[in-house]
Design a protein that fits this description.
elongated, mainly alpha, 0% strand, 158 residues
Length: 158
């Protein structure tokens, strides 16, 4: 849940920057880069400190380089998606700038939405935890459920 909230904050920041720059006439690649930078800082802070409760020294190789690598992949995907959408709509909506800005911004949101789960898995299994807190919680639930079933079976047998 904390990851989702942090992602919404970062996405909202990015979308606002993206839409304002696109409306101002900045190209979609520069838009995506600047919107990414605007959202990356709150995303990093909220994910590391709040969602995964990491404090203290960072593992530069895993946390910083890994986060940067994942972010660059997301940046390339959003740049490609918004560039393609803008090129497609540029021919059809030349005279309706506001609608084009809205639809290209929506393409940016769709790409980020598609990456949401993949980024969560990467953050949980590689970037912010060594073993994956989410995976450990699922394992604990299964183990706890298995113990409860075993206890019930032994009680009924007695």
């Amino acid at each position: 849940m904390r990851y989702a909230i942090g992602s919404v904050v970062a996405l909202t920041t990015s979308v606002i920057v993206f839409a304002l720059l696109l409306d101002a006439g900045v190209g979609t690649t520069a838009d995506s880069v600047l919107a990414f930078i605007a959202g990356a800082l709150p995303n990093w802070i909220l994910n590391r400190r709040w969602a995964w409760e990491r404090t203290g020294e960072m593992d530069i190789g895993r946390e910083v380089i890994g986060y940067t690598l994942i972010s660059l992949i997301a940046l390339a995907a959003s740049s490609a998606g918004t560039g393609w959408t803008n090129a497609l709509l540029g021919h059809h909506l030349q005279h309706n700038h506001g609608l084009r800005v809205l639809l290209v911004t929506l393409a940016y949101v769709v790409v980020q939405g598609l990456l949401f789960v993949a980024k969560f898995v990467a953050y949980d299994r590689w970037i912010f935890t060594e073993g994956g807190r989410f995976r450990a919680a699922l394992r604990a639930r299964r183990t706890g459920a298995g113990l409860a079933t075993a206890e019930l079976d032994s009680d009924s047998a007695a």
